[in-house]
Amino acid sequence: PGLKKHSKTMGKTRGLGAGRKLKTHRREQRWADKDFNKANLGSEWKKPFAGCSHSKGIVLEKIGIEAKQPNSAIRKCVRVQLIKNGKKVACFVPRDGCLNFVDENDEVLVSGFGRKGHAVGDIPGVRFKVVKVAGVALSALFREKKEKPRS
After folding, report:
1. How far from chain centre, in Å, is Cα 59?
2. DSSP line for the chain
3. What's the whole-model pTM score?
4. Cα-based distances in Å from 142 to 33, 36, 116, 130
5. What are the CA-CA distances from residue 21 to residues 12, 18, 75, 143 (Å)?
6. For the segment 50-68, what is each residue's pLDDT rounded down to a tens digit?
């Protein structure tokens, strides 16, 4: 009279022999977690920087990229071939007139643009920016603190 049967619908497998089932289920379910996926898929190595924050490259050409609507401008960018893997990327050259410091065949240091692989603002398809030219920071050249070395 006072005993209720414990009616359990679906849940975790229990018992002595359940170890394998629990282990495989956990292993499959971990892939539903976005952070786990990102850490273990290995797609980070297929990106141009291959898991690094910065990368060196050689300037192939200077290009002007038109800004997206509703803005109207030509954003000054360069095509860079990365030294480590030969991949070609488009990089934004920040600040007014800094494109004049960058010449073809210069060695530049390139970093991400701050949105983890997304284009920023009104510049379509550009995910990187130039930080240094010939070993000198662009900001130092812009503020006239340093000069670019003659090669």
Report:
1. 19
2. ---------S----SGGGHHHHHHHHHHHGGGSHHHHHHHS-GGGGSTTTT-SEEEEEEEEEEEEEPPTT---EEEEEEEEETTT--EEEEE--STTGGGG--TT-EEEEEE-SSSSS--TT-TT--EEEEEETTEEHHHHHTTSS-PPP-
3. 0.79
4. 44, 42, 26, 13
5. 9, 5, 56, 64
6. 989 999 999 999 999 999 9
